[in-house]
Protein backbone atom coordinates (compact mmCIF):
# COMPACT_ATOMS: atom_id res chain seq x y z
CA UNK A 1 0.00 0.00 0.00
CA UNK A 2 1.14 3.61 -0.65
CA UNK A 3 2.91 5.53 2.15
CA UNK A 4 0.98 8.19 4.11
CA UNK A 5 0.52 11.46 2.25
CA UNK A 6 0.57 13.66 5.34
CA UNK A 7 3.75 14.86 6.99
CA UNK A 8 5.32 12.62 9.65
CA UNK A 9 5.67 13.73 13.25
CA UNK A 10 7.53 17.01 13.70
CA UNK A 11 7.33 16.75 17.47
CA UNK A 12 7.36 13.59 19.56
CA UNK A 13 6.69 13.23 23.28
CA UNK A 14 9.77 13.16 25.51
CA UNK A 15 9.23 9.55 26.51
CA UNK A 16 9.51 8.26 22.93
CA UNK A 17 12.63 6.66 21.50
CA UNK A 18 13.89 8.13 18.24
CA UNK A 19 12.73 6.12 15.24
CA UNK A 20 10.17 3.99 17.10
CA UNK A 21 7.21 5.81 15.48
CA UNK A 22 5.70 6.17 18.96
CA UNK A 23 4.22 2.69 18.77
CA UNK A 24 3.69 2.78 22.54
CA UNK A 25 0.82 5.25 21.91
CA UNK A 26 -1.30 2.41 20.48
CA UNK A 27 -0.06 -0.44 22.68
CA UNK A 28 -2.28 -1.22 25.64
CA UNK A 29 -3.96 -4.28 27.13
CA UNK A 30 -6.91 -2.07 28.15
CA UNK A 31 -9.89 -2.69 25.82
CA UNK A 32 -11.04 0.89 26.56
CA UNK A 33 -7.80 2.37 25.18
CA UNK A 34 -8.76 4.37 22.04
CA UNK A 35 -6.43 2.30 19.81
CA UNK A 36 -8.30 -0.85 20.89
CA UNK A 37 -11.73 0.77 21.09
CA UNK A 38 -11.81 2.14 17.51
CA UNK A 39 -11.32 -1.33 15.96
CA UNK A 40 -13.79 -3.00 18.34
CA UNK A 41 -16.44 -0.29 17.81
CA UNK A 42 -16.01 -0.43 14.02
CA UNK A 43 -16.40 -4.22 14.11
CA UNK A 44 -19.77 -3.68 15.86
CA UNK A 45 -20.75 -0.87 13.48
CA UNK A 46 -20.04 -3.13 10.48
CA UNK A 47 -22.73 -5.55 11.70
CA UNK A 48 -25.20 -2.61 11.60
CA UNK A 49 -24.23 -1.67 8.03
CA UNK A 50 -22.67 1.57 9.21
CA UNK A 51 -19.11 1.00 7.92
CA UNK A 52 -19.65 -1.34 4.98
CA UNK A 53 -17.07 -1.66 2.20
CA UNK A 54 -14.46 0.58 3.90
CA UNK A 55 -16.92 3.54 4.14
CA UNK A 56 -17.52 5.33 7.46
CA UNK A 57 -15.38 5.08 10.59
CA UNK A 58 -14.74 6.53 14.02
CA UNK A 59 -12.18 8.67 15.79
CA UNK A 60 -11.53 9.17 19.51
CA UNK A 61 -9.88 12.08 21.35
CA UNK A 62 -8.11 11.52 24.65
CA UNK A 63 -7.17 14.97 25.94
CA UNK A 64 -4.65 16.30 23.36
CA UNK A 65 -4.29 13.03 21.44
CA UNK A 66 -6.55 12.07 18.55
CA UNK A 67 -6.72 8.44 17.35
CA UNK A 68 -7.56 7.95 13.67
CA UNK A 69 -8.20 4.91 11.46
CA UNK A 70 -6.43 4.36 8.14
CA UNK A 71 -8.13 5.17 4.84
CA UNK A 72 -9.62 2.60 2.50
CA UNK A 73 -9.29 -0.36 4.85
CA UNK A 74 -12.02 -2.74 5.95
CA UNK A 75 -12.93 -0.87 9.11
CA UNK A 76 -14.24 -4.01 10.86
CA UNK A 77 -10.85 -5.77 10.48
CA UNK A 78 -8.57 -2.98 11.76
CA UNK A 79 -6.04 -3.60 14.51
CA UNK A 80 -4.64 -1.20 17.12
CA UNK A 81 -1.34 -1.24 15.22
CA UNK A 82 -3.11 0.36 12.21
CA UNK A 83 -4.14 3.47 14.16
CA UNK A 84 -2.71 6.98 13.56
CA UNK A 85 -2.16 9.39 16.45
CA UNK A 86 -2.20 13.17 16.15
CA UNK A 87 -1.59 15.90 18.72
CA UNK A 88 -4.15 18.74 18.61
CA UNK A 89 -1.62 21.16 20.15
CA UNK A 90 0.99 20.32 17.50
CA UNK A 91 -1.69 20.55 14.82
CA UNK A 92 -2.80 23.98 16.05
CA UNK A 93 0.75 25.26 15.51
CA UNK A 94 0.85 24.01 11.93
CA UNK A 95 0.60 26.90 9.47
CA UNK A 96 -0.86 24.79 6.69
CA UNK A 97 -4.32 23.70 7.82
CA UNK A 98 -4.48 20.91 5.24
CA UNK A 99 -1.20 19.23 6.22
CA UNK A 100 -1.27 17.18 9.38
CA UNK A 101 1.35 16.39 11.97
CA UNK A 102 1.12 12.80 13.18
CA UNK A 103 2.87 11.51 16.29
CA UNK A 104 2.36 8.02 14.92
CA UNK A 105 1.87 6.97 11.28
CA UNK A 106 1.56 3.32 10.25
CA UNK A 107 3.80 3.41 7.14
CA UNK A 108 1.61 1.10 5.05
CA UNK A 109 -1.49 3.31 5.02
CA UNK A 110 -2.86 6.82 4.57
CA UNK A 111 -4.94 8.41 7.34
CA UNK A 112 -8.74 8.43 6.94
CA UNK A 113 -10.11 11.03 4.54
CA UNK A 114 -12.60 11.84 7.30
CA UNK A 115 -9.78 13.22 9.49
CA UNK A 116 -10.52 16.97 8.99
CA UNK A 117 -14.21 16.35 9.74
CA UNK A 118 -13.39 14.43 12.91
CA UNK A 119 -11.00 17.23 13.89
CA UNK A 120 -13.80 19.78 13.46
CA UNK A 121 -15.88 17.90 16.06
CA UNK A 122 -12.90 17.81 18.45
CA UNK A 123 -11.72 21.41 18.03
CA UNK A 124 -15.02 23.24 17.48
CA UNK A 125 -17.10 21.18 19.93
CA UNK A 126 -14.58 19.62 22.29
CA UNK A 127 -16.03 16.21 21.41
CA UNK A 128 -14.39 13.07 22.78
CA UNK A 129 -15.53 10.86 19.91
CA UNK A 130 -16.91 11.28 16.39
CA UNK A 131 -18.57 8.53 14.36
CA UNK A 132 -19.22 8.58 10.61
CA UNK A 133 -21.71 6.08 9.17
CA UNK A 134 -22.92 5.24 5.69
CA UNK A 135 -26.15 3.85 7.15
CA UNK A 136 -28.90 3.24 4.56
CA UNK A 137 -31.37 4.99 6.84
CA UNK A 138 -29.31 8.19 7.01
CA UNK A 139 -28.91 8.21 3.22
CA UNK A 140 -32.61 7.50 2.65
CA UNK A 141 -33.66 10.36 4.94
CA UNK A 142 -31.53 12.78 2.90
CA UNK A 143 -33.10 11.43 -0.32
CA UNK A 144 -36.62 11.86 1.06
CA UNK A 145 -35.76 15.43 2.10
CA UNK A 146 -34.31 16.09 -1.36
CA UNK A 147 -37.61 15.19 -3.00
CA UNK A 148 -39.42 17.51 -0.59
CA UNK A 149 -37.97 20.60 -2.29
CA UNK A 150 -39.23 19.56 -5.72
CA UNK A 151 -42.94 20.10 -5.21
CA UNK A 152 -45.19 20.68 -2.25
CA UNK A 153 -44.09 19.27 1.10
CA UNK A 154 -45.96 16.03 1.64
CA UNK A 155 -47.25 14.70 4.93
CA UNK A 156 -43.91 13.05 5.63
CA UNK A 157 -41.60 16.04 5.57
CA UNK A 158 -41.23 19.70 6.33
CA UNK A 159 -40.48 21.22 2.92
CA UNK A 160 -36.92 22.05 3.89
CA UNK A 161 -34.38 19.73 2.30
CA UNK A 162 -31.53 21.09 4.45
CA UNK A 163 -32.94 20.02 7.80
CA UNK A 164 -34.32 16.78 9.23
CA UNK A 165 -36.91 17.37 11.96
CA UNK A 166 -38.81 14.98 14.13
CA UNK A 167 -40.75 15.25 17.43
CA UNK A 168 -42.95 13.33 19.81
CA UNK A 169 -40.92 10.12 19.60
CA UNK A 170 -39.48 8.68 22.84
CA UNK A 171 -35.99 8.00 21.39
CA UNK A 172 -35.43 11.77 20.97
CA UNK A 173 -34.63 11.66 24.69
CA UNK A 174 -31.37 9.89 23.74
CA UNK A 175 -29.90 13.28 22.74
CA UNK A 176 -28.17 15.90 24.82
CA UNK A 177 -29.47 19.48 24.65
CA UNK A 178 -26.11 20.68 23.33
CA UNK A 179 -22.50 21.08 24.42
CA UNK A 180 -22.23 22.99 27.68
CA UNK A 181 -25.90 22.37 28.48
CA UNK A 182 -27.16 19.90 31.02
CA UNK A 183 -29.77 17.25 30.40
CA UNK A 184 -31.28 15.66 27.34
CA UNK A 185 -34.03 16.64 24.92
CA UNK A 186 -37.56 15.89 26.10
CA UNK A 187 -40.24 13.80 24.41
CA UNK A 188 -42.04 16.91 23.08
CA UNK A 189 -38.86 18.67 21.92
CA UNK A 190 -38.07 18.79 18.21
CA UNK A 191 -34.81 17.19 17.13
CA UNK A 192 -33.20 19.12 14.26
CA UNK A 193 -30.32 17.72 12.20
CA UNK A 194 -28.80 19.89 9.44
CA UNK A 195 -28.13 18.39 6.00
CA UNK A 196 -25.14 19.37 3.84
CA UNK A 197 -24.60 18.44 0.19
CA UNK A 198 -22.04 15.77 -0.66
CA UNK A 199 -18.77 16.71 -2.38
CA UNK A 200 -16.51 14.67 -4.64
CA UNK A 201 -13.80 14.54 -1.97
CA UNK A 202 -14.54 13.86 1.69
CA UNK A 203 -12.23 16.59 3.03
CA UNK A 204 -14.11 19.22 0.98
CA UNK A 205 -17.09 18.57 3.25
CA UNK A 206 -15.21 20.14 6.16
CA UNK A 207 -16.11 23.79 5.51
CA UNK A 208 -19.78 22.90 5.13
CA UNK A 209 -19.76 20.76 8.27
CA UNK A 210 -18.15 23.63 10.19
CA UNK A 211 -20.71 26.06 8.77
CA UNK A 212 -23.50 23.78 10.01
CA UNK A 213 -21.90 23.60 13.46
CA UNK A 214 -21.95 27.41 13.59
CA UNK A 215 -25.56 27.59 12.40
CA UNK A 216 -26.73 24.79 14.73
CA UNK A 217 -24.61 25.28 17.87
CA UNK A 218 -26.56 22.60 19.76
CA UNK A 219 -26.41 19.88 17.15
CA UNK A 220 -24.51 16.64 17.71
CA UNK A 221 -24.86 15.47 14.12
CA UNK A 222 -24.77 16.56 10.50
CA UNK A 223 -26.30 14.54 7.66
CA UNK A 224 -24.46 14.42 4.33
CA UNK A 225 -26.81 14.07 1.36
CA UNK A 226 -26.53 10.75 -0.51
CA UNK A 227 -23.61 9.82 1.74
CA UNK A 228 -24.30 9.31 5.46
CA UNK A 229 -24.00 11.09 8.79
CA UNK A 230 -21.39 12.45 11.23
CA UNK A 231 -22.33 12.14 14.92
CA UNK A 232 -20.27 13.20 17.92
CA UNK A 233 -20.48 13.37 21.69
CA UNK A 234 -18.57 14.48 24.76
CA UNK A 235 -17.56 10.84 25.39
CA UNK A 236 -17.40 7.61 23.40
CA UNK A 237 -20.50 6.42 25.27
CA UNK A 238 -22.47 9.55 24.31
CA UNK A 239 -21.33 9.55 20.67
CA UNK A 240 -22.30 5.87 20.35
CA UNK A 241 -25.70 6.15 22.03
CA UNK A 242 -26.56 9.31 20.07
CA UNK A 243 -25.53 7.61 16.83
CA UNK A 244 -27.70 4.60 17.72
CA UNK A 245 -30.65 6.81 18.67
CA UNK A 246 -30.30 8.75 15.43
CA UNK A 247 -30.13 5.61 13.31
CA UNK A 248 -33.26 4.35 15.07
CA UNK A 249 -35.04 7.66 14.30
CA UNK A 250 -33.85 7.67 10.67
CA UNK A 251 -35.18 4.14 10.14
CA UNK A 252 -38.44 5.06 11.84
CA UNK A 253 -38.72 8.21 9.70
CA UNK A 254 -38.27 6.23 6.49
CA UNK A 255 -40.95 3.75 7.56
CA UNK A 256 -43.24 6.63 8.64
CA UNK A 257 -42.78 8.23 5.23
CA UNK A 258 -43.78 4.92 3.59
CA UNK A 259 -46.96 4.94 5.69
CA UNK A 260 -47.55 8.62 4.91
CA UNK A 261 -47.20 9.54 8.60
CA UNK A 262 -45.83 13.00 9.49
CA UNK A 263 -42.47 13.42 11.25
CA UNK A 264 -43.70 16.54 13.05
CA UNK A 265 -46.92 16.38 15.03
CA UNK A 266 -48.74 18.67 17.39
CA UNK A 267 -49.44 16.63 20.49
CA UNK A 268 -50.69 18.16 23.70
CA UNK A 269 -48.60 17.03 26.68
CA UNK A 270 -50.52 14.55 28.79
CA UNK A 271 -50.70 15.69 32.41
CA UNK A 272 -50.50 13.03 35.13
CA UNK A 273 -53.79 12.80 36.98
CA UNK A 274 -52.29 11.74 40.26
CA UNK A 275 -48.92 12.01 42.01
CA UNK A 276 -47.18 8.91 43.25
C1 LIG B 1 -16.57 3.53 0.22
S1 LIG B 1 -15.41 4.81 0.10
C2 LIG B 1 -15.95 5.96 1.30
C3 LIG B 1 -15.00 7.10 1.52
O1 LIG B 1 -14.90 7.87 0.38
C4 LIG B 1 -15.46 7.96 2.66
O2 LIG B 1 -16.77 8.44 2.41
C5 LIG B 1 -15.46 7.28 3.98
O3 LIG B 1 -16.41 7.32 4.72
C6 LIG B 1 -14.28 6.55 4.48
O4 LIG B 1 -13.08 7.15 4.13
P1 LIG B 1 -11.70 6.52 4.62
O5 LIG B 1 -10.65 7.41 4.06
O6 LIG B 1 -11.62 5.11 4.09
O7 LIG B 1 -11.76 6.50 6.13
ZN1 LIG C 1 -18.05 8.62 4.15
UniProtKB/TrEMBL annotation:
Major enzyme class: lyase
One example GO MF annotation: methylthioribulose 1-phosphate dehydratase activity
Reaction equations catalysed: 5-(methylsulfanyl)-D-ribulose 1-phosphate = 5-methylsulfanyl-2,3-dioxopentyl phosphate + H2O
Major location category of this protein: cytoplasm
GO cellular component: cytoplasm
Domain Class II aldolase/adducin N-terminal: 36-254
InterPro entries on file: Aldolase_II/adducin_N, Aldolase_II/adducin_N_sf, MethylthioRu-1-P_deHdtase_MtnB, Salvage_MtnB_euk
Protein's GO biological process: L-methionine salvage from methylthioadenosine
Region (Disordered): 1-32
Pathway as given in its UniProt record: Amino-acid biosynthesis; L-methionine biosynthesis via salvage pathway; L-methionine from S-methyl-5-thio-alpha-D-ribose 1-phosphate: step 2/6
Cofactor annotation comment: Binds 1 zinc ion per subunit.
Location in or out of the cell: Cytoplasm
Active site as annotated: 170
UniProt: substrate binding residues: 114
Residues holding Zn(2+): 132, 134, 227
Cofactors (names): Zn(2+)
The keyword Transmembrane is assigned to this record: no
SUPFAM superfamilies given in the database record: AraD/HMP-PK domain-like
Alphabetically ordered keywords of this record: Amino-acid biosynthesis, Cytoplasm, Lyase, Metal-binding, Methionine biosynthesis, Zinc
Record EC number: 4.2.1.109
Purpose: Catalyzes the dehydration of methylthioribulose-1-phosphate (MTRu-1-P) into 2,3-diketo-5-methylthiopentyl-1-phosphate (DK-MTP-1-P).
PANTHER family registered for this protein in UniProt: METHYLTHIORIBULOSE-1-PHOSPHATE DEHYDRATASE (PTHR10640:SF7)
Cited NCBIfam families: salvage_mtnB
Family: Belongs to the aldolase class II family. MtnB subfamily.
Listed name of the protein: Methylthioribulose-1-phosphate dehydratase
Lineage of origin: Eukaryota, Fungi, Dikarya, Ascomycota, Pezizomycotina
Gene that encodes it: MDE1
